Amino acid sequence: MAKQLPFILQGRYFTVKGEIDQDGSVNASCQFCPNKTVKGHIHATTNFHKHLKAGHPTTYTEFIATNSRKSRKRKQSEIRENVSDETENETVKGEFFGKKLRYTKEQANQLIMDYVVTDM
Ligand SMILES: [Zn+2]
């Protein structure tokens, strides 16, 4: 499948049934109910959330915890990618405010400036 599925539809909680529509609407079967299909949308997964919350509260709690960990990780790697695109010769490597990132010295200085300003 070419489209990137949201975590909730990647098979652990729901599996996608059939094709995903052009507009992103999708049918998915619940992994915890024998014959339950939930209609939803790959960009708006509210219906799947609702089903887990109502039908499988323990699983839902686990899902929320796992999902938020995952999205934090994804954000950090996006930052890293964006930065390395612009990186030229001179880089600053290593820990930077607790994140492992690479910056040019100019970018690093700018970040320090921003950091100082925002925190005052
Ligand atoms: Zn279910």
UniProtKB/TrEMBL annotation:
Question: Region Disordered: which residues?
Answer: 65-88
User: What is this protein's name?
Assistant: BED-type domain-containing protein
